[in-house]
Amino acid sequence: MGQGMGRENVMAVTGGASGIGLAAASKWVECGGSVVLLDFDLAAAQRASRDLGPAARALFIDVADAQSVAQAFEDIASREQRIDALVNSAGIARPAPSADMTEEEFGSVMNIHVHGTFRVSQAARKLLSASGQGSIVNLASVAALAGMPGRANYTAAKSAIAGLTRTLAVEWASESIRVNAVGPGYVRTPFTDVLIEQGKLRTEGIEARTPLGRFAKPEEIANVIHFLATNDSSYVTGHLLMADGGLTVQGDWY
């Protein structure tokens, strides 16, 4: 399903209206597939789908709501009648010191990232299995492997996604579904741009600690997602592939 896929090959992407999700969708369409952009911001998803052309369509989803998730995948089952790849890219960040973080701030991030990934994966399972070559790619992060001050909710969520990925990979292998995760470093997306503008993210320190010395472009992460989503990685499952410019292996402490 790499270079030889056609429009009948369908990818569903949560958080598909912008950032990494949209970049992954664009790569899929570029390589000949069709895509369903699933997003809470339906207007933004519709604009993105128009830019991608007739191979894309937009659909509302609230990954924090089980009924919304079920309705979205019932719609896909009715219209596309298949899913070959699922990208769980929906997410938020609500940084706060752990001593001051409210239960709502912690729980909302966990609900969208972890519960959302689980809800969506469950809803897509039968269609992915029917494909005979289904692939789920979850978005983890460098936060899954590091203790990031002020981000207890986010680091807990991304660590949980890595664990969920491993368990689903083992359970669903017999159903012809591979499940992997990508661990991006810092990527220049509209999401991170807002944090930078708010003073909640300082680019200088991140660039200095990253061996490649820069943020990633969304397209660079999309290329990794595409590899895991297609048969180019047909014997890879349960894996967390770090795409972080070397950030998590930086050992220059001297």
TrEMBL record:
User: Domain named Ketoreductase: which ranges?
Assistant: 9-185
CDD domains documented for this protein:
SDR_c (cd05233)
Q: Does the keyword Hydrolase apply?
A: no
Q: Which GO terms describe its biological process?
A: fatty acid elongation
Q: Which InterPro entries does the record cross-reference, listed alphabetically?
A: KR_dom, NAD(P)-bd_dom_sf, Sc_DH/Rdtase_CS, SDR_fam
- State the superkingdom: Bacteria
What keywords are annotated for this sequence in UniProt? Oxidoreductase
User: Oxidoreductase: is it a keyword of this entry?
Assistant: yes
Q: Which GO terms describe its molecular function?
A: oxidoreductase activity, acting on the CH-OH group of donors, NAD or NADP as acceptor
Q: Gene3D superfamilies annotated for this entry?
A: NAD(P)-binding Rossmann-like Domain
Give the family this protein belongs to, as stated in its UniProt record.
Belongs to the short-chain dehydrogenases/reductases (SDR) family.
Protein name, entry field: 3-oxoacyl-ACP reductase
**Organism expressing this protein natively:** Glutamicibacter uratoxydans (Arthrobacter uratoxydans)
